[in-house]
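CHAIN AND CONFORMATION:
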Amino acid sequence: MHIADGILTGPVLIAGFAGTAILAALTMRRMDLEEIPKISVITAVFFIASLIKFPIGPSSVHLILNGLAGVVLGWRAFPAIMLGIILQTVLFGHGGVTVIGVNSIMLGGGALLAYLVWQLRLRFEFPKREVVFGTLAGATGIISSGIVLALALLTAGEAFVATAGYVLAAHVPIMIIEAAVVGACTGFLARVKPEVLAGQTGIRAR
């Protein structure tokens, strides 16, 4: 789900970098050194998962796991994914340099929304709530990122209208898979090591 160089217009690219800079500054505030290993692990998971890609026009589909990043790292998910995108671009040319900002907002923003959905579980008390809200968070991470991707492609002109719709539809099965994966992971972690999950005794919103 990366946009390639040469697709988007200058104003969109500038807005992407500006938005990324703001979100990075906000989500990295008061970061502790103790958080870095956890962030590094999730960055590595995101990095590896999204390297397995299937091209679709100017974009691609692949596992993202930004929902998992959101439920584990909370607000720190954004810098983790941003770092993963930068490494993918520099090491493998995945996406492109000019679209690092847009791709970071697309995928990192999805992780933040997934975290907000995950936090809704605190308002409810019922068995398996971690599984339910983990599943919803996993789906939210993908569908929100897919919507941003489609909107970004629409700004590139009429030539990409059909591609935008196709790419969004192509991510529906990815959404289902990731929802199941994140739901299973949160259910397991809630039982054996709940402090790993954001909003428990791990990284909290500040």
Summary: The first helix runs from residue 10 to 27.
